[in-house]
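Hey,
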Amino acid sequence: MGLIDDAPRKSLKRAGAEERLSPPVLMLLQRRFRAVRPLWEDMMETLLLDRNENQYGPAPACYKVLREARLEQLSLYSRAYAAGIKSELSDRLSRELGIPERHVLLSYGSEDMLKQVVHCYLHAGEMILLPRQSWWYYQAVAKEVSGRHVHYPMHERAGRFEYDVDEILRLYGEHKPRVILIASPNNPTGNSIPQETLSAIVDRCNESVIVLDEAYAGFNGNDIDQLRAVLAARKRIVVLRTFSKYFALAGLRIGYACVGEGLEQLISFSARYLGYNQLSEKIALAALDDVDYYAGITREMRADHEMYLREFRAIEGFTPFPSDANFILVRYPRSTKQALKQGLEQRGIIVKFLDDPTLEDCVRITVGTREQNARAMAAFQDVAKNVLHFNLRSSSGLEAS
């Protein structure tokens, strides 16, 4: 047996970390891995594609920041204020977006800023308008402040999900919600809201605070121009973004919000006197610098997204939906749910089977690396053919043997 067992060694090598660790650290890892060897082996055999994490990992420059971390980044508070800014990261984002730095709010992931917005503006008995087929956490946060909620539906049209602006405007007129939440791309349906639809909602619903959750921004191309246009309108809108998904830094928990006009209460509510996590900021800045790395892995994911669409369409009874994010939603015959789930788990594939009444016959699959996606697709095909006894066609339309 080597200094580190093969399984953890492969993981470290893939992350580009093995050759950068000192012998004492490697010895510590050896003891830790041996202590949890059965758990590690189970994890190596199981492919987790259920939480929309970016399986490619962050840019190499992010690891460099960790290797070169200095004492002041760990032991001392930020002194960015001496330069007349809140933080290096908020200063960088404000310059790229063309908005005042005080309108860029850093947070512990976009989840944290979502909670801050709701706690700041939604009070007991007040209404929030939420997408029906979306993240369960939106409703949970509203309940924390005893707020009421009403759902607007996503409609399935022409093989994908879409926002219905007329329905949103009707519900706005009926309920006069304090907050309207829009997710784009939406999880789990994967659809984005068109610019003209968003503009119509923002213009017409001017008595509400509009929260645009863009946690999955970036996977469908560079959308910085659209974000600039949204903010330039100077409306009561809060755009939530994170480094967790596109930039593959979910473990850091760093996000931010871009705030429109007339939301001074939120700016004050979210202020942090002692600054932010300096090491996380440096890593986030390194990620922003490596445009080519993220463009490259995004091309890989888009190609594999097309592979999923093509191959699932060739399985009898399965319907995949196009997605602008790093996941894909697939509908399957409702009666096969338990057999499908069990068959995938037996083959080491963990994906998200949905419980929402309108999506309970759907599964959400994280788009992983090329190798992971090939393995997941093969498992679906194997279960469909040999457990569910469905017909499979080749991608050319011919029935597969």
